[in-house]
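Reviewers of the previous submission asked for a worked example of the structure-prediction workflow described in the proposal, so we include one complete record here. The input consisted solely of the amino acid sequence. No template or homolog information was supplied to the procedure at any stage.
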Amino acid sequence: MDVSIFGMPRNAGFDLFVIQQPGKPFGVSWYQTDVNADSRGFGQATVRGVFDVETFSVSPGGTTTFAPTHQYHLGLWFNDPSLPFNLGCEPGATSPIVTPFNGEQHAGIQVLNTAEFPVNAGPLSHVHR
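From that input alone, the workflow returned the following structure tokens.
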């Protein structure tokens, strides 16, 4: 999967996740890669894996149990929670909003997603091997 971003804050880091639904609460989500914007706000990443209509997660037991669940959407989060706060992306917030969407579980808010697709029919549901 090739992912490109543009028009982003310069020299900023982002974290790409495959997610169940594009908006909160996002559902089952799994980290894919970092995407870094350069001095022009452009970034690119290539991820190898199986990303298609048949990809799903399941947890039949253990500490968390859930039925087979597809993740057809993509979401991109600011790696640093202070960046969107300092850019004014969190109106009314008195401190940066912290989400668990990076390796340290200390990321910023979601900046991009695939919400132009229906919740149960994200872009990965249209990929067939």
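The chain has a mean pLDDT of 96. We consider this example representative of the routine output the project will generate in years two and three.
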